[in-house]
Input
Amino acid sequence: MASRTATELVHPARDELRFTDVMAALSDPVRLAIVARLAEVEPEGELACATFALPVSKSTQSGHFKVLREAGVIQQRDEGTRRLNRLRRADLDNRFPGLLTLAIPQGCAVLADWS
Output
């Protein structure tokens, strides 16, 4: 079995963030919920993928994290067997001021609906 770290995690640079990619990533309720959870542990916090209680399979969760990472919404890094996630607030606020201010409450509403 290949190591998780065999594939490099690709993150776009701040100046490569595209509004349409970020909006597409934020258009799904599960991904909005992920963003809201990451916002709860800011500014220095990171959460492992396994700590998210999402109503989808593990493989579907992995796909959601990948979409968020490739759009530049989250930063991921591997630490041992865990993949840690952090919201890229500074980059997003710089490129698209106010976007997270609108998106995070929507994600919180999704989380509340799941409770």
About this structure: The chain has a mean pLDDT of 92. The radius of gyration is 14 Å. The CA atoms of residues 59 and 109 lie 24 Å apart.
